[in-house]
Every structure is written in structure tokens, then in C-alpha cells.
Give the backbone structure.
Amino acid sequence: MAGRRGALAGAWAAAATVLAVGALALGIAEHRRLGATEDRLRALERRSPSSVVVVDSAPGTTGRPSTSARPPDEVLARSQIEFAFGVVYDASVPDVDRIKMIDDGSGVDDALRQLATTSTDPTVRELRVRVDRVEFTSASRASVEYRLVGRDDEAHQGTARVVDGAWKVTRASFCADLAAFGSPCRR
């Protein structure tokens, strides 16, 4: 009986060692993957607001929007969406650069100019955004929940979509917020 217990204990010890080594290997692999993702995010954060972030497409693709429910690299897409919202809602960024990150900038420049010259609300000049949630509705479209930092703490709903390979804030999303400030977009 004692010999059998010793053999079982040895087998359990060997199994535990195999599991521990496997968990360690998985942990190392995950750490490397996260490190690469963090490097890509840092590279995006270093880009100037006027740069357009392009979503890489696989060789041989047509560039047409995918019918897949999610983009091929969700982490990269999410960071590009956060970047676009960050630029568009940053009042310290020149308007021309903000408009580049909107899918259709028609009438936005006039609304921003009107807001800058007529608004007595001090938060207009200090406006920033915090993206709380990004939910992909397709490979080229996402629903975005965000908050206007310094303005209110209410959750706002907006949309981002891919235009010419880059994630952009939809005109409807930004113009709805401009209208709430008393500066609607006109075509």
C-alpha cells in the first residue's frame, strides 16, 4: 500500500510539474503578445494629430468593407478609434486636423468657427473626450460610448467607421455634440 501511495504521489507531482511548466509557457507567450500590442499603442500615441492612421489590409484584398462582425485586429482598431475621437474632441488641436478625422467634414468647420466665436462656455476651449466602450458592429463600423471630460459626466453614444482605410468619427456623432453646444453643422 505504501509503495502504491508513493507511486501515486510521484505521478501527481509529475502531473503538477507538467501543468506548471505549461502555464509558465503560456504566461510567457501572452506577455510577449501584450508587449507587442503595447508597442503598437505607444507608436500610435506618438503620432501627430494631423497624421492619418491607416488600417492595414491583407495583400490581395480589394479594400472593400468586410462583412465580418469584427476587424481583423480589434486592439489596433480600438486604439485608432480612440485616437480619432481624441483628436476630434480636443479643442487644442487645429480645426483642420480635427476635421481630417471626421468621415464627412462638410459644415463642421463653420460650426467650429461659430462655436469658438460665440460660445461663452469656458469648457468649449478645454474640451477633451474619454472613450469608455467600443463595440464593433462590423469590420468597418463601431458604436462608441464616450464622455466629454470637463463638460459633463454623461455617457454619449457615437459611431466610428472606416473611410479609405482609416477609422474616423462620423459627422453625425460630432455634429450632435456641436448642436448641444448651440453650434449646429450645416451642409
Q: What stands out?
A: Confidence is low (pLDDT under 50) at residues 40-66. The radius of gyration is 24 Å.
